[in-house]
TrEMBL record:
<dbReference type="InterPro" id="IPR041581">
    <property type="entry name" value="Glyoxalase_6"/>
</dbReference>
<feature type="domain" description="Glyoxalase-like">
    <location>
        <begin position="23"/>
        <end position="103"/>
    </location>
</feature>
<protein>
    <recommendedName>
        <fullName>Glyoxalase-like domain-containing protein</fullName>
    </recommendedName>
</protein>
<dbReference type="InterPro" id="IPR029068">
    <property type="entry name" value="Glyas_Bleomycin-R_OHBP_Dase"/>
</dbReference>
<dbReference type="Pfam" id="PF18029">
    <property type="entry name" value="Glyoxalase_6"/>
</dbReference>
Length: 104
């Protein structure tokens, strides 16, 4: 994925890389999305505490294993599995820079 690059000996998101939903409108000249998107912005300081934003990435019904495998291909790592029975089942994951998010 072009948004993930090697930086200071580790995998990280390329500065100002944006990921947009393929079905949302976008500017054909620039590729900039006009709908839902995530923008990864470089900041000079390292993460110093709890995430400023928490993201849940949801899979299609029965697709959690495929989603987790795809996220690992992109550089994410598994932190902990959470199984709350009827209340839900998900994985706490980390991106290449250590930011936590959930795959459900």
């Amino acid at each position: 994925m072009a948004a993930v690059v090697e930086h200071r000996g580790r995998r990280t998101f390329r500065g100002y890389a944006a990921i947009r939903h393929p079905e949302d409108p976008f500017d054909r000249a620039s590729g900039v999305g006009r709908g839902r998107r995530l923008l990864f912005q470089d900041v000079p300081e390292a993460k110093s505490g709890k995430n400023r934003l928490h993201i849940d990435v949801h899979s299609e019904a029965g697709g959690l294993d495929r989603l987790v495998a795809r996220l690992e291909e992109l550089g994410a790592t598994r932190v902990r599995e959470v199984d709350r029975g009827p209340a839900g089942h998900w994985w706490i994951m980390q991106d290449p820079e250590g930011n936590e998010f959930c795959a459900a």
